[in-house]
Amino acid sequence: MRYKHFKNAGADISALTVGTWGIAGANSAGVSWGDVDTKESIAAVRRMVENGVNMVDTAPIYGEGHSEEVVGQALKGIRDKVYLTTKFGSYINHFTGTSVRDCKYNTVEREIDESLKRLQTDYIDFYVMHWPDVNTPIEETMAAVNMLKEKGKIRFIGMSNSPKELIMEAQKYAKIDVIQPPFSMVNQTERELMEWAETQGIGTMTYGSLGAGILTGAIRECPEYDPKDMRLVFYPFFKEPTFSKIMELLKTLDAIAEEHEKPVAQVSINWSTQKSFVSTALTGVNTPAQADENCSAFDWELTEEEIARIDSEIKRLEIG
Hints:
Layout lengths: L2 E4 L4 E4 L1 E4 L18 H13 L4 E3 L8 H9 L8 E6 L1 E3 L6 E3 L3 H15 L4 E6 L8 H13 L3 E7 L3 H7 L7 E3 L10 H9 L3 E4 L23 H4 L8 H19 L3 H10 L6 E5 L3 H8 L8 H14 L3
């Protein structure tokens, strides 16, 4: 396993983080990642830790608490081996079935205790604002997380899905230790933000690192997912013309993977994590075998020439 230094947090974090959105099951609106096996999910999380991964990421909105509960079970007896990340300020309204963004002081104060209970722990390492709340001043939100930090309920503060301007404003009231933007070969929209964060000592946790699975090479025909499948709801990769462009990109990844005698997923992981501005990449795992495959990516590296080949193809295809 490779490790990278989160400067502001003063922590050495594995280049891979366990992402647990995909093991959350369905929410009350029926939106999900498909069928999940809780026992396998727990085994997969533990195998990632056995392989040297020391960061686990979750959120209360994932399966409306289910993901946090699964993580809590998975970390029994090994909590001291990992940095635990969860989020706040985003939940499902059970009446409308829609996502609500609420980062008010009292909400943050309530949510932390609910998360701690589900996760079976007495502190969170990285507590991350999931989405900006346009109805709450960032000063109020930062006052809440600073209070939690003083009480020892959290150690570090983060922001996800937030623009540079909001992060800079938040920095006036609190030390921002980490941000969590999307980043992969097929989504580089936040690259400039991540490069700026690197200059600030802010760690970056990238989500969608394998493009919801499309960059593993396991999907070769446009799938007919249920309309409520999260891969259709949240990501654009499984719709045309984007899908066909990514299939063309996979030809280059296939060639490089074959040259190394490695899986395509490992090419994708290395392409991302070899970048200095990527501190750690979130990858979902459903089974111990997937955990082993992802972690084995760090047994080798892409050459600069191979990265250039991939980048040239991304540019030609106008994706990412």
